[in-house]
Amino acid sequence: MQDDSMRDWPEVRAWRKAKRAELIERRLALPATDGAEAAAVVANLRAAEVPELATGLIGFYWPFKREIDLRPFVRDCLKTGARAALPVVVEKGRPVEFWAWQPRMKMKPGIWNIPVPAERAPVQPDVLLVALVGFDEAGYRLGYGGGYYDRTLAALSPRPLTLGLGFELGRLPTIHPQPHDIPLDAIVTERGIAWHRSRGRPLSDTAEGYASPPCFLHELDCT
Ligand SMILES: Nc1nc2c(c(=O)[nH]1)N(C=O)[C@@H](CNc1ccc(C(=O)N[C@@H](CCC(=O)O)C(=O)O)cc1)CN2
Ligand SMILES: Nc1ncnc2c1ncn2[C@@H]1O[C@H](COP(=O)(O)OP(=O)(O)OP(=O)(O)O)[C@@H](O)[C@H]1O
């Protein structure tokens, strides 16, 4: 267990609320001119050659607040045999459902007016592409404060592979993990991809797949 002087949940919650607001503001202030960072994140995701993204069922997200737009990437994945689904908040304080999505399908506004498929068709993703507000060196994610992904991952069996997508500006030494926080398997930024685990298990436990190298691409620190 890492040394963490901020252990108290009320204290951590207040810290996260302020950090979340700061990071969202900094993301919204990124120069929109060419979207080079976002393009680099998607290029790094593509270069990871995750088999589930080529042929599996991909849970992704409809971008808002300058989250990285994965829709063109996911459309490419559909061409190689993947299927896709979007998260839908069906009830506050409950796990999200993933509803099957296809290009040009009819959508309707969901929570925060984020579009969701008009028709409910729940499916089980093999791999989840998760938007990051912040992330830390152990693969923990800071989101929008609803706890939706933690609840969803706690409930999903088998556990999908989880990849967080974000900008380097969201990197934090620690998000002060709490018992409810479930870390992601890998974090993808404009700098590269860092694998932390595979479906929640230590990389050293996995016989094949993502065991080696534990992280790759560019100069990422693998410790
Ligand atoms: N594009 C996109 N879609 C997504 C997500 C995402 O991160 N990105 N989600 C990923 O999870 C889910 C929506 N996440 C949400 C997270 C929080 C709140 C919310 O109501 N937050 C409260 C603050 C809660 C608190 O601080 O206690 C609020 O803003 O009032 C709503 C939706 C599903 N869809
Ligand atoms: N498995 C769970 N069961 C019940 N409550 C949970 C669970 N996971 C998280 N929560 C609750 O959700 C709330 C928000 O948690 P947190 O700050 O980690 O959100 P977040 O991961 O940033 O949000 P999101 O995933 O929606 O973007 C907390 O009050 C937490 O107790």
TrEMBL record:
Its cofactor is Mg(2+). GO terms for molecular function: 5-formyltetrahydrofolate cyclo-ligase activity; ATP binding; metal ion binding. Pfam families: 5-FTHF_cyc-lig. Its EC number is 6.3.3.2. The keyword Coiled coil does not apply. Keywords: ATP-binding, Ligase, Magnesium, Metal-binding, Nucleotide-binding. It catalyses: (6S)-5-formyl-5,6,7,8-tetrahydrofolate + ATP = (6R)-5,10-methenyltetrahydrofolate + ADP + phosphate. GO terms for biological process: folic acid-containing compound biosynthetic process; tetrahydrofolate interconversion. NCBIfam families: MTHFS_bact (TIGR02727). Belongs to the 5-formyltetrahydrofolate cyclo-ligase family. This is 5-formyltetrahydrofolate cyclo-ligase.
